[in-house]
């Protein structure tokens, strides 16, 4: 039985997911939260196998919550849930350490397949090039490894960074891709 | 006890599922139809035995607002509620103009939807507190300036075509969808651009996004 925490600010989405997953085999919702803060607490406390995170949350965005979630010891797999799923988002989600992006319009059988990890996400090479063009060379190395499925610890080791430094670097990359001013290096 | 027969329209199956759970917890409400886009909502809403249509504002093919306009003008007595993720005055005003008797925010649907359905069936409007404030402010401002509300420059048919153009449909596809000739679609397109003082599709898409006809 795979345990799941849902973070989404829409009550209809939360109850819809719980209702839907109750019927299927092998997945169980252990907590649902409406904000990133509550969601992070639930994930840290309950240690689920999977976290399903809405991209737009009232107090944070799903990708930064994803990064923080993946920094936990023995973190869950993260699936980003969005009404606006596109190829660019798939690349950014990979940088944040998510294992997949799921469109809210996906039919129930796709939803359960992605949550169970039965569908391998693919990254569109054009979206990858477009986003890559906006990054510096050292950032490109991180991007390349992450979208090719290199484990997060291995990325850090390869670059001679500590776990925290590697996470800070990834947060910076996301900020740059979102057009925000990169935070000072931690 | 008479049950209110409800049609749910939302393009996300998960959301429909959640809304159904919220509504079916109440003995006086029953979901009798579920649809995934606005055009289907019009079709079923006109044909099926439903008292109330709950329409998501942003759906493919036809928005909830367009569907509301069709349903309220073509089927007397059918009540409509608009569900929206946008706490936005323009959408709210459009919803009321389209004949909906209420506007419910998705972020509080678990709290408000049941009450909204009951209010609507009693023949009362349902608005969340922020919406009431927005309407009052708008009313007061208009009264001070002495204007009347501006009319929509586009006809409902033209609005339908704008949405389909913004969804990147070809002229042929639009003609097929609306059962018009390609020539008529072209003519509508020219008229729309002239009315709005726009040059091309890019400007039209921006307009469609501003009006909530498509998602950015």
UniProtKB/TrEMBL annotation, chain A:
Supply the SUPFAM superfamilies for this chain: CheY-like
SMART domains, alphabetically? REC (SM00448)
Response regulatory domain residues: 3-119
Q: Which InterPro entries would you find in this protein's record?
A: CheY-like_superfamily, EvgA-like, NreC/VraR/RcsB-like_REC, Sig_transdc_resp-reg_receiver
Keyword list (alphabetical) reads: Phosphoprotein
Q: In the record, which positions carry 4-aspartylphosphate?
A: 54
Name recorded for this polypeptide: Response regulator
The organism named in the record is Solirubrobacter deserti
TrEMBL record, chain B:
Q: What is this protein called?
A: Response regulator transcription factor
Q: What are the residue boundaries of the Response regulatory domain, all occurrences included?
A: 5-121
**SMART domains linked to this entry:** HTH_LUXR (SM00421), REC (SM00448)
In the record, which positions carry 4-aspartylphosphate? 56
Q: Which keywords does this chain's UniProt record carry?
A: DNA-binding, Phosphoprotein, Transcription, Transcription regulation
Q: Which Gene3D superfamilies match?
A: 3.40.50.2300
Keyword Nucleotide-binding assigned: no
Q: Which SUPFAM superfamilies match?
A: C-terminal effector domain of the bipartite response regulators, CheY-like
Domain HTH luxR-type: where?
A: 147-212
